[in-house]
């Protein structure tokens, strides 16, 4: 139990990084400065006045902590909250149950740590743990088998003592239920996830209702329901005591709306892939993320035991939690809580039944029963100690490229220096930034600068607009038109590998005529619109991306230096400064050679330089370090395919498709490989799967012209090989309709037309291809 608490504290003690933390802090600042709870959007300039209902007091609390203790205070608050979650899961009625709860809690710590971040969702995880633990204890311990009608004088002294203690426990558990409405009063004002608390109440009544099916349990159930309904009814009523009244449930519906455009790109909303490569992650014992699969296995055992013991309510609750965790990563923390609370009880009772089954068999196996638990406990302690060491040394964070390091304070991912530059130099106009940077922009640049879009995703139309801009060249008419309409004068993009480099092409930004870079470091870039009124800043701060130096931070730790050189190396690679990129990546690798992302970056560098052997070696090293990442399998497979090694590429791309949360691109490439291998029917099936996976991506088809053009062109080749040239021509024309400026696709259409005897049309298509090639 002590080890579980220490593990929880240290798992939460890392630098803070969260895409939503910023807008929580900005909201808290607004409430304290204006003494008003907002009901409309006050952070984004693209959605002014739009209705926004969200409990504000988590932001107020986090902002208060930040004002007193800064980012370090937020780190310690999250670490202590995580330890509190685990502590409330460990209180069992018996030593054995508490011990089993500790075993399961150690497995649950990684999932809970992902939810223990400085955002309002933290309170939902904490209160969910308290609600479930308290109601489960009441359900399991508060029943008085006698129904309260026992003559105490008729009992033996030992039985009388048990009865008195049981009655006292009954009163304690009943009184403790009154903490639930008080907690709900806090919960409803902290996070829309308070609805999970109502879900626990429904689950409790369902469990009790299923217990009524058994006559010998009916009296105890009715007694519990009679005692429980007043505090539980008060808990429901408490949800109305918030600044919005009943309208708070609109916020709940918005939070639960998984059809929002950004949902497909939010990792925590993605489903778990139940494929063999995904399941193999359970064998990577040193990676804390494998604990989810261990908990899932424990849940399956608990469900089986619960059904066998005719505890149908417990079984259904565990099944529902497991299903939710598979559908969305966000609910893995709540699932872990259910497994610890319910599983520890079910497993303890099963062990006790087995122990009481046959004294003779137990006597024969006494030695084994002592040895096996000791071995298991020692192995678990050793594993936990290894994982704790990985946390303290930051090995886990560097391996996972999470952007955080062990210790208190802010993450190196935050573009603090760029934000300080914008504020210090008082750059005018609205800021455009991508989705991930929205919360930070609202916090660090607000209230003088609003954000374009943030994690609240108030407007789907704005999200679609953001994606269209990011997919367009910075000098395109789209950028000019939208910048005029929105008054955008500043571009603020993250460049760190943590944010996925989702800004437009860095080289295009540096060479843009419409925008000029005025600030650049290893995690961000700032550009100003190239207009006369901005010339004083542009002339003073103009950045030459081909000569700009990246200076390492002073007094940096080894982990910070590793991150710095890795980020700088990738940026230099994008800027085609290959020698400098090589030097930076080598320095990062010398500090921490287990970072798979550095090996991937080196592989791409060698690929550009046509060092094919070195490219393959680096991809394989990265794969040996992180076999759970789809992008590495995909990158190596694409490398093989680009050099005609299709037979070697196919199993790699197939594995990537089985690991990827949205495998649209994987199946598209797989189809092209099958076309090259002359597996034409299989290729058509691959393209169908690619289109099916595309339905999980947000926005209209027009946002993905190249994706659909590749599918159409691949199908055209497959149908031509299958002897359907007319169908092939139609599909090639569809590919051209998607990408009319692609000369190669016009040339392919000319080939198909010529093969069908349409020589005049073929010549026209060939002339179009030549004209496009000369541009």
Topology:
Blueprint: H1 2-12, H2 21-34, H3 57-89, H4 95-115, H5 121-141, H6 157-176, H7 179-187, H8 195-211, H9 215-238, H10 248-256, H11 276-279, H12 291-308, H13 312-327, H14 332-357, H15 359-364, H16 366-392, H17 395-399, H18 416-424, E1 430-432, H19 438-444, H20 460-470, H21 477-486, E2 488-494, H22 506-510, E3 515-520, E4 524-529, H23 535-541, H24 558-574, H25 578-591, H26 596-608, H27 612-625, H28 630-642, H29 646-659, H30 664-676, H31 680-694, H32 705-721, H33 725-738, H34 743-755, H35 759-773
Parallel strand pairs: 1-2
Antiparallel strand pairs: 2-4, 3-4
Helix pairs in contact: 1-3, 1-4, 1-16, 2-3, 2-19, 3-4, 3-5, 4-12, 4-14, 5-6, 5-7, 5-8, 5-14, 7-9, 8-9, 8-13, 12-13, 12-14, 13-14, 24-25, 24-26, 25-26, 26-27, 27-28, 28-29, 29-30, 30-31, 30-32, 31-32, 32-33, 33-34, 34-35
Question: Could you walk me through the main structural features you see in this protein, from its secondary elements to its overall organization?
Answer:
There is one protein chain. By secondary structure, this protein is mainly α. Among the domains are: 120-255, no CATH class; 416-541, no CATH class. The chain has 35 helices and four strands. It has helices spanning 2-12, 21-34, 57-89, 95-115, 121-141, 157-176, 179-187, 195-211, 215-238, 248-256, 276-279, 291-308, 312-327, 332-357, 359-364, 366-392, 395-399, 416-424, 438-444, 460-470, 477-486, 506-510, 535-541, 558-574, 578-591, 596-608, 612-625, 630-642, 646-659, 664-676, 680-694, 705-721, 725-738, 743-755, 759-773; strands at residues 430-432, 488-494, 515-520, 524-529. A four-stranded mixed β-sheet has the order 1-2-4-3. Strand 3 and strand 4 (524-529) form a beta hairpin. Helix 30 (664-676) runs parallel beside helix 32 (705-721), helix 32 (705-721) packs antiparallel against helix 33 and helix 33 (725-738) packs antiparallel against helix 34 (743-755). The longest helix is centred in the N-terminal third of the chain and has 33 residues, at 57-89. The termini are far apart. Residues 143-155 have low confidence and may be disordered.
